[in-house]
Amino acid sequence: MSPPLFVIVRHGNTFEAGEPPRRIGARTDLPLTGAGIAQARALGVHFAALGWHFVRVLVSPLARTRATAQAILEHQDDPPAAETCEWLREIDHGPDEDMPEPVVLARIGAQALAAWDTQAQPPPGWTVDAEARRAAWRDLFAGAGEPAGPTLLVTSNGAARFALAADPSLSAPQGLKLPTGGYGVIVRRGDGGLQVAAWGQRP
Q1: The domain 4-201 is classified under which CATH number: 3.40.50.1240, 2.60.40.290, 1.10.4030.10, 3.30.470.10?
Q2: Which of 36, 40, 78, 138 could form a disulfide with 32 if both were Cys (CB 3.0 to 4.6 A apart)?
Q3: Burial of 34 (0-12, 13-18, 19+ CB in 10 A)
Q4: Residue 170, CA atoms < 13 Å, CB-side half-sphere
């Protein structure tokens, strides 16, 4: 793999084993579970073993993302201070916020959910501001030179997908979603463009 420019991490688990998953977004600030903390620490160990030293860290304001970033940075020598970015905050699920997945699916339908997962097209009622999110990622990419190391971004599933949606050269065969405790890597191609080197990886 080429040296990463950006390492994009989805926070660790916020639901206990056996707990029915719900649509948790910007208005529900859940902490990590014990398993989620373990996932975040595993990411830190993994990145350190790869020799990745982050020169910049951008993180969503939510507790679950900040805790994930902190656990990762505990395994870095002399890490930079994390910068809080509002545009990395999870999206607002509107009437589906904190609702069980079967309830959400019944309201919006399978087609709308598929469009969200494959095209980052928000279902009706969700507050996303998709163009502003794409623009924020594009601005980040445009300012990327060749730093001494990669930028770490820690965010949520709904926000991370707009990294791929922001640039037509960026795509992942498995779709836009990142699993909890998973990450993606964006590198520079030989012609100067950007490329997804990994997406949906876990340590």
Answers
A1: 3.40.50.1240
A2: 36
A3: exposed
A4: 26
Nearest to 157 by CA among 136, 184, 138: 184
Strand segments, DSSP code E, in the chain are 4-10, 56-59, 82-84, 151-155, 183-188, 194-201
Contact 142, 167 (CB under 8 A): no
Q: Which residues of 144-154 are buried (b: 16+ CB within 10 A; e: fewer)?
A: eeeeebbbbbb
| Complete DSSP assignment for 19-59 | PPPB---TT--PPP-HHHHHHHHHHHHHHHHTT---SEEEE
pTM given for the model: 0.96
9 vs 72: CA distance, rounded Å? 10
Residue with tokens 């939510």: 62
Enumerate residue ranges in the chain where pLDDT < 50.
Answer: none
The pLDDT mean for the chain works out to: 94
**How far is residue 142 CA from its own chain's centroid?**
19
Within 10 A of 58 (CB to CB), how many other CB atoms are there?
Answer: 21
Cα 95 from chain centre:
23
| CB distance 102 to 22 below 8 Å | no
Q: What is the pLDDT of residue 149?
A: 83
Q: Which of 90, 32, 33, 24 is nearest to 61 (CA)?
A: 90
Instruction: Give every CB contact of residue 115 below 8 A, 6+ residues apart in sequence.
Output: 121, 123
